[in-house]
Design goal:
The protein is mainly beta and 110 residues long. It is 0% helix and 55% strand. It contains no helices and eight strands. The strands form two sheets. It has a five-stranded mixed sheet, with no helix packed on it. β7 and β8 form a beta hairpin.
Length: 110
């Protein structure tokens, strides 16, 4: 059985938490990206850029590479001083062979 993917590079982004109470800051958060090649196999060695934009604090950016299993993760702390509202987490995955793609999710400070 041959399993075929979507025919394009894909990435999915998840976060260790999606809602954070402002009165509990500072709070740790972990972003995890899973990248797959056009055939649906894990994409190893791809360049990854994580961006975390939370109201009231400077944007946090980190770079890395996907592991042999196509996974990259980034942990940071959202400091006191963040404002209530919706922020975003974004991941950009780039590969010389397959181009680039991105995914995002909403992170809410309550």
């Amino acid at each position: 059985v041959v399993k075929r993917g979507t025919g394009k590079l894909t990435v999915s982004l998840s976060a260790s938490t999606y809602q954070i109470r402002r009165n509990r800051l500072p709070e740790s958060i972990r972003l995890t990206a899973r990248a797959s090649d056009p055939d649906g196999r894990p994409l190893a060695g791809a360049d990854v850029t994580f961006t975390l934009s939370i109201p009231g604090i400077p944007t946090i950016t980190a770079e890395g590479k996907t592991s042999a299993s196509g996974v990259a993760s980034f942990r940071t702390t959202i400091p006191k001083g963040a404002d209530v509202g919706q922020g975003s987490a974004t991941v950009l995955v780039s590969s010389e062979e397959f181009g680039s793609t991105e995914d995002y999710t909403v992170i809410t400070i309550k």
